């Protein structure tokens, strides 16, 4: 009986060994087939309509392509909260996402966190606000930028404004966050258009993309420079602040406003002749362009990261009515 028992145990052990050593090919293949790339969209403040529109566009795209990828949408409460946005990058890496599509709140400060993500094997695509080229070189990484030419877009807006002004007129500029590349480029575009038209920029200050701060600064500008004929705002949220300041100063008939982003509130302001023009960088599609670029890179890892320029269009009352801007 002892021999029979020992023989039975040996046969049982061999059987267990065969089962544990054999690869579970059915489970692995099922996992490979069912797993979809996980993409994290990391934006700036969702309190800004531009970014809530961006999020909605991305979510709509994922719904239409649910079989292709999964999407996680993140944003920060305050566009100046760089540490929180960097922390979100780390959280997404720890969560095991395959790609990060980011609209960085700062062109330099987010680069180290993104370098860590790349080192962890995550594909990174930069949208909306271009990361600083020199800092990317210092960190020895390449991150493709998918987005519009902000300088060209702002220049289009500035040139449209110049048609309403005379040579020698004075204007002021509400800048975005000064460490943001898109803010820098829009400022340059505005200044180029004014210089070419012989219009003087008498004041230029940062309102950090915020409506309330723009209202306060614009009020001060109008008080210190009563000769101002227009305010050029580097985003539409600040344009709304400028409108309120102009209304409070009883200057609605003689001070014009232009913006950048084409949010719904400014579309209405254009219809009401409170804003002359804005630029549409197609916020509802901007994240989609970035997601599609990330999916291509995930599908073919041999693809070299490369920039993609996306559209930016001038929006006026005429264009909204379907009239030619020529």
TrEMBL record:
Signal found in the keyword field: yes
Pfam family, one: Peripla_BP_4
Keyword tags: Signal
Stretches assigned to the Periplasmic binding protein domain: 39-299
Localisation: Cell envelope
GO cellular component: cell envelope
One GO MF term: carbohydrate binding
InterPro entries in UniProt: Peripla_BP_I (IPR028082), SBP_2_dom (IPR025997)
Protein family (similarity comment): Belongs to the bacterial solute-binding protein 2 family.
Name recorded for this polypeptide: D-ribose-binding periplasmic protein
Organism: Novipirellula herctigrandis
Gene encoding the protein: rbsB
């Amino acid at each position: 009986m002892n021999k029979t028992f020992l023989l039975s145990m040996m046969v049982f052990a061999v059987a267990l060994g065969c089962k544990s050593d054999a690869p579970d090919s059915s489970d692995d293949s099922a996992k490979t087939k069912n797993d979809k790339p996980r993409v994290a969209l990391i934006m700036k403040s969702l309190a800004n309509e531009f970014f809530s529109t961006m999020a909605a566009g991305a979510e709509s795209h994922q719904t239409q392509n649910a079989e292709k990828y999964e999407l996680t949408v993140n944003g920060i409460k305050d566009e100046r909260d760089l540490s929180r946005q960097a922390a979100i990058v780390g959280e997404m890496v720890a969560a095991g996402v395959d790609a990060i599509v980011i609209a960085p709140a700062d062109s330099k400060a987010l680069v180290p966190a993104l370098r860590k993500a790349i080192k962890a094997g995550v594909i990174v695509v930069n949208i909306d606000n271009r990361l600083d080229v020199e800092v990317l070189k210092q960190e020895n990484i390449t991150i493709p930028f998918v987005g519009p030419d902000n300088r060209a877009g702002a220049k289009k807006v500035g040139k449209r404004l110049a048609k309403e002004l005379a040579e020698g007129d004075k204007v002021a500029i509400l800048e975005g966050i000064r460490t943001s590349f898109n803010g820098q480029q829009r400022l340059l575009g505005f200044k180029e258009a004014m210089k070419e038209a012989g219009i003087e920029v008498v004041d230029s200050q940062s309102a950090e993309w915020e409506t309330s701060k723009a209202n306060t600064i614009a009020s001060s500008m109008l008080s210190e420079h009563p000769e101002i004929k227009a305010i050029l705002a580097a985003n539409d949220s600040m344009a709304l602040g400028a409108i309120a300041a102009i209304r409070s100063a009883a200057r609605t008939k003689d001070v014009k406003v232009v913006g950048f982003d084409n949010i719904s509130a400014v579309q209405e302001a254009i219809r009401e002749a409170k804003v002359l023009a804005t630029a549409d960088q197609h916020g509802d599609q901007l994240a989609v362009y970035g997601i599609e670029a990330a999916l291509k890179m995930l599908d073919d890892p041999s693809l070299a990261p490369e920039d993609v320029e996306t559209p930016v269009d001038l929006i006026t009352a005429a264009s909204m009515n379907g009239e030619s801007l020529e």
